[in-house]
Amino acid sequence: DMELLGVTGVEDKLQLDVRQTLESLHNGGIKIWMLTGDKLETATCIAKSSKLIRRNDDIYIIQQVATREECLQELNIFKRKIGACLVITGDALQICLSFYEKDLMESIIESPSVVVCRCSPTQKAIVVDLLKKYRNRKVRVCAIGDGGNDVSMIQSAYVGIGIVGKKGKQASLAAAFSINQFSYLTRLLFVHGRDSYKRFLLVDYGTVYTMFPVCSPVLDQDVPADIALLYPELYKELAKGRIYQGSVIMYVGLILFDADFIHVVSITFTALILTELLMVALAVRIIVFFETKISIELTSE
Known about the structure:
By secondary structure, the protein is α/β, with parallel strands linked by helices. The protein has helices at about 20-25, 40-50, 70-80, 90-110, 120-135, 150-155, 170-175, 185-210, 210-215, 225-230, 235-240, 245-300, and strands at about 30-35, 60, 85-90, 115, 140-145, 160-165, 175-180. It has two domains: about 20-180, HAD superfamily/HAD-like (Rossmann fold, 3-Layer(aba) Sandwich); about 245-300.
C-alpha cells in the first residue's frame, strides 16, 4: 500500500548522425560489432534504433548457456541461420569460448553484425584479441570507445579511436586518434584514412623503387680492396681533386645539351608516335578478337 511520490528516469540519447555514420560504414564494407555493458534488452534496442541491426535482419540470441552440450546446440543452430545477426551475453560468450573457441569465432565473424551485452572491460579486450587471431589476413581491427572501460579494448586493437565525451578523456588519451563525435568517424576513415594509405604506398614506391638506383653508388667500388692496398698511389688522385669535378661535369653537360637538343627532341617525339601507334594497333587487335569471338558464338548458336 505504498504511495508513489515520483519517478525518475535517465535518457541516454544517441549522438548526432549515428545512423548515417553506421550506414556509411556498412556501405564501405566495414563490419561493426557492439561491445557494451548494458543488459540484453537495452543493447538490442540500441542496436535497432541506431540501424546497426536493420529492420529485415534476422536476430539470434544466445543468453542462457551453462554446459558444453548447450554450447554445441546453440552453435549448431546459429550456423544454420545464414546471414543472421548475433546478440550474445558476456557470460554465454565466455562459456562458449572455453569449449568451442575456434568454431564460435569462425561462425560469428561471418555475421553481418554482432552485439555482445553485459560485457566487462576485460572481455572487450579478449574479443578484440580473438578477432585479431581468427581474422582474415587482409582485415584490420579498429576499436572505438568513449569511456574508461574501453581503454583495454582500444589498446588491444590495431587502431584505437577515442571519443571525447561526458565520460571523460581516458579513452581519447589511450587511443591513437581522438574525435569529438562518433559522426566524425566517416571523415577520419573515408577521407584521411584513404588518403594516408594511398600516400603511404606512393612514398613506398618512390623510396624503394626509384631511390634505389640513386643510393646504389654508396656500395660502388671502382677497384677491389686488395688492389687498393697493393697500389697506394691510387690515393694520390683524391688529393688533387680531379675526380668528378662539378664544373667539368656542368660544362660537358651544357655542350651536349646545346649540340644534341634537336636530336633529343626528335628522338622523343618519334618514340611517342611509335608508342601511340602501338597502342592503337593493340586496341584494334583486341576489338577484332572480341568481334570474331562473338560472331563465332552467335553462329554456333
